[in-house]
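Lecture 7 notes: from sequence to structure.

We start with a single chain of 128 residues. Read the sequence below before looking at the structure.
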Amino acid sequence: MSFSGKYQLQSQEGFVEFMKAIGLPDDMIEKGKDIKSVSEIEQNGDQFKVVITTGSKVLTNVFTIGQEADIETLTGEKVRAVVNKEGNKLKVVLNRITSITELVDENTLVNTLTLGSLAYKRISKRVA
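Now the structure, written as tokens:
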């Protein structure tokens, strides 16, 4: 199953607590909590381009599975990391945050970010 497609955020759990824990300012958390972000994924073999648009903020990451790449985090920081693919899951550790993006079926993308005991879960549906 290919990750390629455009997905819109449908629901999320743990947003405010997680964003506070990673140091996002309260005003940005307030603005961001109700925005339905759009994720666009282009997959070509082991090469990926992921563009996440949240309001006016656009986060773009380009990486190849198993190779070190500069990944931009939610706070705008660039981190050298390796993205691994396990079946229909993409997994990467960015500093203390573990991100797992799973294609649960051809139309549903679930992204879970964990920091210690805190978890932030995003469920997105394919729109294109």
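The helical segments are 15-21, 26-32. Keep this in mind for problem set 3.
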